Amino acid sequence: MSNPFKKILQDEKLPEYLKERVIDNVNFIKLTLDVTGLYAVELPKALHSMIEGAAEEKEIIEDKLNKDKSDD
Amino acid sequence: MKKLSEFSDDELIRRIVSSGDTTAFGELYDRYAQLVYAKCRNFVSQSDEVDDLVQDIFVGIYVKLKSFRGDSKFSTWLYSFTYNHCVNHYNREVKKKRIEVNLEQVYEGVAGVEDEISDDEIFSLATDKLKMSLQQIEPADKVVLLMKYQDDMSVREMSLMLEVGESAVKMRLHRAKKKIVEIYNSL
C-alpha cells in the first residue's frame, strides 16, 4: 500500500526565484559577519601587535642608549 | 577538481562552517529546498507566506549550521529545524491563548485501552482528503505525523529531535493518528 504522506510531498513545486532571494540574504549575512569580524577581531589584533612592536622598539633603543652611555 | 555537486552533505557543511562559502550553501539549498518547501506548505496555505518561511528557514540554517554536530543525519536535523520554525510561526500568527494542559498525562491513561491505529489504516487514506485534514490538525500533532510518515524517523530519532522521552513520542503519535483519522472522517 502506498504512503499518502509521501504523495503530498510531490505535489508542491518550489518557485525558482526563491533561491536568488535566499542566497542574496546569506551573502549579506556573510558580509556583515566578515565586517564585524574585521572590526571586532582583526583590527584589535593589528593594534595590539603595533603597540607591542613599538614597545619592543623602545626597549631596543633604550638598551642601545644605555650601552652607549656605559661605553663612554 | 571535485565539483560541489559531488560533495557529500558533511563535506559541504564543513566548507560552509569553516569559510562561510555561500556557493556551497547554494548546493545544499538545491538538494533540500524542494522538500522544505513542501513541508512548509503543510503549515501555511498562502504562497507568499510559504516563500517567506522557506527563506527564513534557510537563512536560519546558514547562521546555525555551526551547531549541527552530526549526531543525526543532516536531513533529520534540517526537517526538525523546519518543523520548529513552522510551529513557532503558526503560534505567533494565530496568537491564540493556550491553556497548558499536560496532554501526555491525559493520554497516558487512555492509550492502553484505546485501539491503536495501524499504519495500514493511515496508508489507506486518500491523498487529497489527507492534505485537507492536515490543514486542520494542530501543528504539534502534524509534526509527529510528518516525522513518522514523511521522513521515516524512528521513535528514537523523534525523541532526540523533539527533546522528549520515547514514551512521550509514542503517546503523541498515538494522539496525532487518532486526531487525523477523526478529522478525515468528519470531512
UniProtKB/TrEMBL annotation, chain A:
This is Uncharacterized protein.
Automatic annotation (TrEMBL), chain B:
Keywords: DNA-binding, Sigma factor, Transcription, Transcription regulation. GO terms for molecular function: DNA binding; sigma factor activity. Residues 28-93 form the RNA polymerase sigma-70 region domain. One of its GO terms (biological process) is DNA-templated transcription initiation. Residues 129-180 form the RNA polymerase sigma factor 70 region 4 type domain. It comes from the Bacteria. The keyword Transcription applies. The keyword Transcription regulation applies. InterPro entries: RNA_pol_sigma-70-like (IPR039425), RNA_pol_sigma-70_dom (IPR014284), RNA_pol_sigma70_r2 (IPR007627), RNA_pol_sigma70_r4_t2 (IPR013249), RNA_pol_sigma_r2 (IPR013325), RNA_pol_sigma_r3/r4-like (IPR013324), WH-like_DNA-bd_sf (IPR036388). It holds the Pfam family Sigma70_r2. Belongs to the sigma-70 factor family. ECF subfamily. This is RNA polymerase sigma-70 factor, ECF subfamily. The lineage of its organism: Bacteria, Pseudomonadati, Bacteroidota, Flavobacteriia, Flavobacteriales.
